[in-house]
Fold this protein.
Amino acid sequence: MGSEDEAGLVARTMGGDRAAFGVLVERYAAQARRVARSVLGDPDEADDAAQDGFLSALVKLAQYDATRPFGPWLMRIVANAATDRRRRRQVRRAEPLDTALVGGGPRPDAQAIRSELGDRLRTALAELPERRRTAVVLFDVEGYSHAEIAGILGIPEGTVRSEVFHGRRRLRALMADWKE
Amino acid sequence: MIDHEKFDHRPDPELGKALRAALEPAGDQGAFVARVMAGYDAALERATVPTWEVLASWSRRGIAAALAAAVVAGFLLGRTVFQPASADDTPATMEAAMAPPEGPGLTALMTANDPPDASIVLTSLVEPR
């Protein structure tokens, strides 16, 4: 995805071009939903946060620097939307995060194994502090650089490296008995 | 998963793939996009107030302002029409306006056969009426 192309899409969106905004949403929908889910855990709530992020980005488009990549800018807004939602949830009800992550029901073997792995990973992710798991997801899943993640999370690059390192190590420890 | 206890700057493809699968949204992507676009439309609708609503919001204040303006205009017009003219007012007729003001300097200027002396002209101009 070329940043120049995205700058054009952003300019068209600001000019009221609905289709251009639609292209941006389609392009980043999956990523935004994953990032929001890494923060919130619950997939439905993550979708709400991702939607909040897109619409919030729409309002803030004038603040976007077209010379820089659009993805990190958008992901910062999405991550903030998810964090805000999580804070509001914590105020509403003081219960552990991500208890509703595990899917249920019998499945065929291969799918069941994948599902179980997913459940284990989500549970393991939920044990990490929010910033740490978001850093791991942005780095290992979404492929952002440490510098870009630093911009997204609003923390120093060195802290991102540390968060990714400790996050990975904790995930590996939690998943150590998987298929072994 | 790559087993590195030491710091590694590179993404871990195996961990990344597994996490991606674990975080993959359950619902349809198209449905999500449609939902966001519906939010876009709703936001746009909220931001665009129909013209008739704007006019309606203006009408109450507009009517009040028009009434106030009419009262003030009526008052000023009535005061002008019914006010008696004073002696110092400007002439009411064209003849009066065009009549030469009285005064010896001007009379001499108008009745003389010779061209006027410059001092007389200037005197007539500066002479108080």
Q: What stands out?
A: Confidence is low (pLDDT under 50) at residues 99-105 of chain A. The first helix of chain A runs from residue 3 to 14. The CA atoms of residues 120 and 177 of chain A lie 11 Å apart.
